[in-house]
Amino acid sequence: MTTAKRDTYTPETLLTVAVRVFNERGYDGTSMEHLSKAAGISKSSIYHHVAGKEELLERAVSRAIEGLFGILDETGAIQGRAIARVEYVTRRTVEVLMEELPYVTLLLRVRGNTKTERWALERRREFDQRVSDLLKAAVAEGDLRADVDIRLATRLLFGMVNSLVEWYRPQPDGSPEADQLADTVVQLAFEGMRAG
């Protein structure tokens, strides 16, 4: 008689399952029972890896936030004219969103009901503010129209970028769709805002 090989879960594979379930059911609608069933392991096995679902949420949104804030430290985000930097940040934001789609999707769906969610919302606002500052600098340098409300432009820019989580699905053949999509977002976002 052979026994079935039991899957071995690591914190990373457990996180992948948790993010999928959180995105399907919503964080508030997910119980440890849901997570254990989806992972095919007992609840006690989950607790071997994490303190609870809030820790899984924190790890997941941290991964997305670290990816986004990492962009701001890249050479293209800190050198050159502000317009080039904000276009670079926008392009890279789209790329990170596509690379980390489930994690960014979860980040964009948090509502502030827990300490982790409130922290994630605050970090998102901080990221938005940094991009808004780049847009202001581009206006000051004369590369973007001065008659565009920066707060509104920032919201519209991120509204467009963040909407990708609702419809973008990676291509199984690994086609260069990601580059094309990032270029299209940048072109659409900035063509109408460039100074004459």
Structure report:
This protein is mainly alpha-helical. It is 70% helix and 0% strand. The chain has eleven helices and no strands. It has helices spanning 11-25, 32-39, 43-49, 53-71, 75-78, 82-99, 101-109, 115-140, 150-162, 164-167, 177-191. Helix 4 crosses helix 7. The longest helix is centred in the middle third of the chain and has 26 residues, at 115-140. The chain is elongated.
Indicate the topology.
Elements: H1 11-25, H2 32-39, H3 43-49, H4 53-71, H5 75-78, H6 82-99, H7 101-109, H8 115-140, H9 150-162, H10 164-167, H11 177-191
Q: Looking at the structure, what is the overall shape? A: elongated
Low-confidence stretches are 1-6
Strand content: under 5%
The total count of helices amounts to 11
End-to-end separation in angstroms reads 78 Å
Number of strands: 0
Task: Specify Rg, calculated over alpha carbons.
Answer: 20 Å
Order of helices and strands: HHHHHHHHHHH
Average pLDDT works out at 91
- Classify the helix fraction into a percent range: over 70%
**Class inferred from helices and paired strands:** mainly alpha
Major sheet characteristics: none
Index terms:
11 helices, disordered N terminus, 196 residues, mainly alpha, elongated
